[in-house]
Amino acid sequence: MIxxxxxxxxxxxxxxxxxxxxxAVPNLIAGGWAIVSPRxxxxxxxxxxxxVVAAHPPYNDHxxxxxxxxxxxxxxxxxxxxxxxxxxxxxxxxIAYASFALPHALWHLAxxxxxxxxxxxxxxxxxxxxxxxxxxxxxxxxxxxxxxAQ
Length: 150
Prior knowledge:
The chain is an all-alpha fold. The chain has one domain. The protein is 71% helix and 0% strand. The two termini are 25 Å apart.
């Protein structure tokens, strides 16, 4: 039986929407850059020193493009969840985002780049782990009693 009653849109605190934007926007930008110009992305990401991707040579056009597509897709699902205020959308987006972010962070933890300093490798790993934590917070809020009380 199809439920004809529409649920009210999800009301979320501003801080949560800001967190979702902080997760979505960098991945949309980095992913879009890698899709449009894989070589430029490989050589220059994140756009300032150190160049994190180039620290893991050799260059591979296909791999750079595909990595960009994964970044872009994770940004799309999180942005979609920001603008489509349904709990199920946000939960799915948080899980999809974390499914990309967690293995990405773990890979960088296990494979520090020889071309980067210890501090640069640590900064990379920390920023990637913060994305995982951010996705976990989005998931927790939308599945907790606080998120379900809305």
